[in-house]
Amino acid sequence: MTKRVLVTGGAGFIGSNLVHYLVKERPDWKIVVCDLLTYAGNLENISALLDENKIDFVRCDIADASNVEDLFSNYEFDLVFHLAAESHVDRSILSAAPFMKTNVLGTEHLLSAAKSHAVQRFVHVSTDEVYGSLGETGRFVETTPLDPTSPYAASKAASDLVVQSYHKTHSLDAVITRCTNNYGPYQFPEKFIPLFISNVLEGKPLPLYGDGMQIRNWLHVIDHCRALLLIAEKGIAGEVYNIGGGEASEVPNKEVALKIIHTLSASEDLLQHVTDRLAHDRRYAIDHSKLENELGWSPTVTFDQGLADTISWYQKHAAWWEHIKSGSYREYYEQNYGNR
Ligand code: NAD
Ligand code: DAU
Q1: Dist. CA 64 → ligand 2 center (Å)
Q2: Residue 332 is inside which H or E element, if any?
Q3: Which of 164, 170, 223, 261 is deepest in the core (most CB within 10 A)?
């Protein structure tokens, strides 16, 4: 059935992958991307779909209530996938205000518009970082108490609570997804995997925070997109769904860095231990058995295969990331890494 679908943040990493996936899987849906095109948004990520008139694009700031109201009045959406956010932990440590504005206030504006325009389902794309950090054992389940550490994670936890309040107070049909670390094509090269791949390709050092033994639970972005569509269509209103890569993709950062170095036949001397991130979460691991048992989802891409494909993608798309790394990115890099 035709649906009018909004993807916020659809010019970013996960959003653009989701838009490509939806166009392929649900060709009769009318998809609209709304994105402010911050430093992280890039129309190149969806240019092929725009050129073929397969989607609409609206430049819109979700933190501006009138922008959001205009958007919802023009299209009358049935379904919203909300991904627009300030998404990088290190930037939230340098300056938290944009995170509160976009991630908390922006989410509220979207919920308010979804309520008044009778949107049928609101999929709020959140993160496992809202749960805080794990010790050596255990996994986050959906009922694990929220205990965010970084300003980024705090802003996402706050947005989750606002979503839940709209569901409880106004009966808005909303679901919350909490996913682990994604990797894959079109990821902005400030994040660990694309940063390390592109730095190796440029012959630059790889700044490994602290002892490098922090663990992340990697999931290929295409598996995240599969989960989001499934939850949008089959998830139960008001529920939270964890999404994760499973035990085999729980890998210490140093091991990921070495895999990248070895795949590219580079020298291990590129690895540089630098001052740790403030309040660096030690370990993330997600229990996604609710999604697996209730909706039949499980990851399909192994970490080794996904990482090899991703390295190859960044080798073939050097122009994409070289362009990004040549602009205001340099100032950020100096600010974040200059004194480490
Ligand atoms: P990203 O930074 O690559 O993309 C974010 C997009 O949001 C950009 O296109 C940006 O221009 C847009 N945006 C920012 N502020 C905006 C505003 N005020 N109005 C409209 N658009 C705005 O982020 P990502 O990694 O693709 O993450 C997408 C979502 O998924 C985020 O909500 C993030 O919290 C969540 N998430 C990410 C991961 C991950 O590993 N990357 C894991 C779990 C959840
Ligand atoms: O867990 C989901 C989250 O994953 C998402 O909600 C966030 O949007 C996303 O950015 C990501 O957060 P992380 O902080 O885990 O990702 P990041 O890529 O910044 O870092 C991954 C790990 O690598 C983390 O332990 C910090 C480390 N790291 C990162 C960078 C950028 C380094 O050692 N050196 C670096 O230069």
Answers
A1: 28
A2: helix 329-337
A3: 223
